[in-house]
Amino acid sequence: MTTFSKIAEYSAKHPKPADKTFAYGTAGFRTLGDTLDSTVFRVGLLAALRSQSKEGKTIGVMITASHNHERDNGVKLVDPMGEMLQQSWEGYCSEIANASDEQVADILGSIAKAEAVDLSVTPRVVYARDTRPSGPALQAALEDGLAALNADATNYGIVTTPQLHYFVRCLNTAGTPATYGEPSVSGYNHKYGQAYLRLVNGKPHPSPLFIDAANGVGAPQVRSLAAAINSPYFNIKVFNSDTETLGKLNMDCGADYVKSNQRQPPSMELQPDRRYCSFDGDADRIVYYYADAHGAFRLLDGDKISTLIATYLRDLVVTAGIDDLQVGVVQTAYANGSSTSYIKDTLQLPTSFSKTGVKYLHHEAEKMNIGVYFEANGHGTVLFNTGAVAKLQQATPQSPAQADAIERLWALRDLINESVGDAMSDMLLVETILICKGWSLSQWDAAYSDLPSRLLKVVVNDRTIFNTTNAEQTLTSPKGLQEHVDVLVKKYPKGRSFVRPSGTEDAVRVYAEAATRADCDQLAYSVAGAVFDKAGGRGDRPSEFL
Ligand code: NG1
Ligand code: ZN
User: Fold this and answer.
1) Is residue 122 annotated as involved in ligand binding?
2) Considering the domain boundaries, does residue 359 fall inside one?
């Protein structure tokens, strides 16, 4: 039986900073690491309660701030199937994070009452963190929260965010028909490594893959994966793997740097014919890149990855002869317009758009038989819904080719981390497809040409005055700003631009694309300038090109 009697004593050790308000956003809580002690302690309490509300199923807690600066940190909850926390509980997270120290127990009690939580259930929680310097102290705060409610808690150490999601799913499906794998790093390496080898066996070996691990947790984990695979089919060279030196995490490296700056990290020299990819700081995002024949940097981002995967899956489904198994693609407004046209017009696959943030894409993809979802920044995965699984089970192959395609679809499902976007699992999936097609990165890139695009950040006095509709592509406030953006967009062939407040940083994001690089940059900077002028810009006016 859980009692709340220890909460007051523990809570006093984790006082809330009086001047701070915390909000559980698209990626959980995320802000300066040294302000998060009380929040993480309280997340421990809520994780235990969430587990009790799910009849003692295991809940995950990940301490990370992903691609953000090393001084930031964050925390998010993982629900029993390894998915993001159910949205209706996000409000409870913010409520308890903002309570006064004395109110914490009462608020937890009122949540327990509202959710009719059976407090006699033993809470089970697993947790992990990335390599950030503020991680150990926050982990200690979390452990206090879990101890205050006598949770059965397990520390998974320093692992990637998707690995923690995987562990949670494994733990809650053990012994059921949906069993997912062994809940350990070696179980993870075994599951994905074996599926990969099953798919590529007998094909020619690939050239080495140069991996930028953002000086984060992806570095040791991808090395451990490579040691487990132990095959010329996975020949990697890891760069930016310094997780010890302060200040290096995500600094001028990693998937976010590469995508935002549209260049390789300065620490890596691009050589023609070499293959490169970058993870972000917690290894849930991945982008690929290479130098073309003229030595120019070429990016293969989340859109390129999703179109590669969708094409491959579609072709397999056709070969397998399963008529009504539909492959679809989910994107956000940040998807390059060329990728959307390519999916609709060339691949002729259904697409749908969701709000920014993987949890929204995930829910949209669940509606499809096989739903491929990626954010342009390289965060995404593939879901096989129950309809797809049933169709695969019922399929009766009429030829060896059909049997092989069905077997490959099952193996691909084993290769994919369905709980969440996962840089390492996505990388193995991309490698599989390239090996099976015998493709170089430039052959992959040839499917369609990206429109030049630019993503800018504008710091404003108050980003809460920005409200949007239409999958976040149209501003409803501040008044008049959308009309202004529309006028600017009309000036540029193939122009598109939208403005939305970031859910993870104190800034407003401006996206623009257009037919030429010069037009795109002019459009991006003129929209950013309008945001700055009309909505309380702070610091320097965005003006690199104007
Ligand atoms: P915000 O800060 O809300 O734009 C960013 C990414 C999202 C998502 C979250 C979570 C862009 C433009 N935005 O969100 O796609 O990945 O971080 O990490 O890439
Ligand atoms: Zn991340």
Assistant:
1) no
2) yes
502 is in an annotated binding site: yes
Structural domain that includes position 144: 7-158
505 lines ligand 1 (CB under 6 A): yes
Write the burial class of residue 133 (CB in 10 Å: 0-12 exposed, 13-18 middle, 19+ buried). Answer: middle
Q: How many domains does the chain have?
A: 4
Cα(248)–Cα(264) distance, rounded to whole angstroms? 16
Biggest alpha carbon distance in the chain? 69
Segment 476-486 shows an average pLDDT of 96
Contact 132, 144 (CB under 8 A): no
Probe residue for ligand 1, chosen from 24, 26, 422 as the CB with the greatest number of ligand atoms within 8 Å: 26
Radius of gyration of the chain, Cα coordinates, nearest whole angstrom: 23
Both 149 and 18 in one domain: the answer is yes
CA dihedral 315, 316, 322, 328 (to 10 degrees): -60
Query: How far, in Å, from the CA of 279 to the mean position of ligand 2?
Result: 8
pLDDT digits (tens, 9 = 90+) for 104-131: 999 999 999 999 999 999 999 999 999 9
* 317 CB-near residues (< 8 Å, 6+ apart): 325, 327, 370, 405, 409
Residue carrying structure tokens 């965060």: 379
Residues that place a CB less than 5 A from ion ligand 2? 66, 280, 282, 284
Nearest-atom index, ligand 1, CA of 375: 15
Boundary of a domain, candidates 299, 318, 353: 299
Torsion angles phi and psi, residue 384, rounded to 5: -105, 115
Tens of pLDDT, residue by residue over 181-221, are: 999 999 999 999 999 999 999 999 999 999 999 999 999 99
Q: Which atom of ligand 1 is nearest to the CA of 379?
A: 16
Q: Which atom of ligand 1 is nearest to the CA of 509?
A: 4
Give me 412's structure tokens.
């691909």
Ligand 2 centre and the CA of 447: distance in Å? 27
Please, are residues 55 and 94 in contact by the beta-carbon 8 Å criterion? no
b/e map of 29-45 (b: 16 or more CB within 10 Å)?
Answer: bbbebebbbbbbbbbbb
User: CA 481, CA 536: separation in Å to the nearest integer?
Assistant: 12
Q: Ligand 1 within 6 A of 34 CB?
A: no
Q: Could you tell me if 292 and 308 lie in one domain?
A: no
CB 451 within 8 A of CB 457: no
Which domain CATH number covers 520? 3.30.310.50
